[in-house]
Amino acid sequence: MKFSLLLILQFTYLLSYLDSQASKRLSSYTKTSCMGSCPAFRFEVYMNGKAFFTGEENVERLGRWSADISDSELQEIKSIFEKNDFFTLEDRYYADISDLPATYIEFMSDGKEKKVMDYYGAPQRLKQLEQEIEAIIERLNWVKIQVK
User: Fold this and answer.
1) What is the pairing mode between strands 92-93 and 25-31?
2) Taking a C-beta distance cutoff of 8 angstroms, is the pair 56, 33 a contact?
């Protein structure tokens, strides 16, 4: 009886661990608003193949949306960060200028985590990464999440 209980507890722990690993966030991409018509939204990608988009203002999709991401798309997202040497970027690109939108990008891989803020003066490779992420956002099949 004790052996069966121990086996059940170990199996439950393993399932819990695997579920927590699958639901870990791979990346997030946030654009903030400005005094004008800047798009403001948040995009999140999880290792379990789920993506979420929260449109705040000046975007086609307002509210909360979800999409499924294939393994190849997850790999594509990882490769975008790798080819643009994301972990070697500065943490912050900023100038004392008012009313620009900021872009915040987070990426987690192999136990490393990095967050970069792009407000002004970012290098071309960061701008390229942003364009590629936005292209992925646009081609996903988004489904509106209904609030109850």
Assistant:
1) unpaired
2) yes
